[in-house]
Protein: Exosome catalytic subunit dis3
Amino acid sequence: MLKNKSFVKRTRKGNIVRTVKEHYLRDDISCGHISCTHTTCQEQPQKGPLSSTPRNSTQWGPHYLVLDTNAFVNQIDILERPIINDVIVLSTVLDELRGLSMPVYNRVRAVLRDQERRWFVFSNEHHRETFVDRLPEESPNDRNDRAIRVAVKWLAGHYHQAGIVPVMVSNDEDNLRKAKADQIAACRMDECLKVYSEHPELLDMMGSVNLAGAESDGWSAYPEYLTPVQIQAGLKASILLQGTLQIAPYNYLEGSIFTKFPDGKERRVLVVGRKDMNRAIQGDKVVVQILPKSQWRKAPSAALVDEDEDAVPDVLKSTDSSAAPVVPDAQKKDQGHAQKRARVEEPATTLATAAEFVNPADIGDDTTEDGEPTGCVVGIVRRNWRLYCAFLDPNFSPKNSRASSGPSTVSVLAMDRRIPKIKIRTRQLDILAGQRFVVAIDSWPKESRYPHGHFVRALGDAGDKATETEVLLLEHDVPFQPFTKNVHADLPAEGGNWLFDADRDQVSCGKRRDLRHLDICSIDPPGCTDIDDALHAIELPNGNFQVGVHIADVTNFVKPNMAMDKEAAYRSTTVYLVDRRIDMLPELLGTNLCSLMSNVDRLSFSCIWELDPEANIISVKFHKSVIHSKASLTYEAAQTRIDDASMKDPITKSIRDLNMLAKKLRQRRMDAGALTLSSPEVRFRLENDSQDPVDVEMKALKETNALVEEFMLLANISVAGKIYEHFPDSAML
Structure:
């Protein structure tokens, strides 16, 4: 069945054009049920992932979940939990998500790819029985809500024989009312989560919860933001300025933006105080208006600020132990940590009238005598909210009684001191005391002193090494999750038994050179398992030297755009911690097949020079190769070979020749004005059993450190020259 869909859009030139697209409707689309007995589903070549025995509840019996768009946007943290399975994602919802939030859309897509989660996309927009046309005077949002209800009602009839109920989940009261009027099983998100009674923490994870009444008495509202039209007009007229807010590391009430002024010069604009921050946090892209010069600051404050400049509640000042809340031992460290920070009064500012605000065009270099330009936030262009590692505020008691079975409204402190307190509701107050956990910000109403958020997940006890390590990784956005099945599927089928094959690895056809006869060695720090480079040097009959740098040929195993390639690009590098490492590639490659270990055949990419005795390059060649390293040496072992005159084996002679040439290369670089950046490096000595650090020692740099460095630099310079020769428009050293 063919229908036409028409819509209007604006071209780059600003013209409005009407576009008509053909929209095909079908009746042979699968419902997703793995054992569906309907003829159209039986004829499908691939069965759906939805279980024939989904979760059972007293209210609906066996059921599937069908969520609306806002449920995905607001509750994606909950929906990613492995316990939430057998979910139907309507194509209407997926299309809306793509337009509303690409990060959430990508997270939903990631879950859909996990076959164990049993999520299914039902193409209701292309099914003849579930497609709906937009009615006259009907908004796009209302049309989509109606499309969801029509799809759920059709699925209910389709699944009736199997005894499974599709349950629509939405927090839209109007949508729920209409669904129930159509006799569709429907509920709010909190009602849905009560089915998972064995996971009470799911209710704490609900986003966009109303925290009305959670604020302290006497707090007046933040100023309203300007409208988008006012902001655009102000930016165009250069009356307003735009930039990314950077908060002072130890004073979240003081920030600044660097932005270009109308005279073309970039200057700093200070933003000081809670009111002038106006609900902006670290990393937000904001629009500011310059305050009157009387309110400009001479310099940023040097004082540290506690998370709250308010007085500690009287209950905490009381000497009566029965009046004070119980503070678990695990919280005492956090409490002392918070109390060490000096308290400063929030700067008092008087509200400026429109006429008093300073036009940025009137600010020049001579106006700095009045202090630095200081402004107030009048709008948010883009929020930079993320997940935050946090702990319960040890200085403030919850709004609800701890003995109450209901949720308590509490404030939490982010580990990142640039972030203000976050108000959350939780039923796990006693469990979270003394723990690190993750929270997310949902909203920041102008009537609220602090942003509102929700609990995401617990990390563990404060002070525990594993917990604090995870906090460190999360706060620095280091990907450390295990590699997915899709990534592991890209590894060689032979696994650790992979062996070099001359035909498969293109040595027989001449595309890869066999260098296994050369006396090649690697020089690395002690304990190194990911050996990615090796070297060799041979004295030639003409008195020159053949020198080679061999780099592990990872491209033989990681092809462009495969899952492993995308994951490696996302991780970017291997991250080393005191007691472990976070690999960029799966261990099979990083520490085995792509590690140039001694006494095994390994694929590499080689850069081979002919150098004269003064280390001048006579010629250079590049090619894929296969090598067989003769020794995996530490810097100290290689230095011992250089210093021990009694050692005269080929590997030792090669290292001595490399060292002699490296010294000349280094001297030539220094004479040419090379910049040397050297800082002391430390190494942690670990206890064998627990892997706990027991001592810190300085790394002693030897000649062999400089040897490896020089030839890695020479290889990079030579490769860059080759790339520039062939691709001059896209080459960069």
Q: What stands out?
A: DSSP finds 20 helices and 29 strands in the chain.
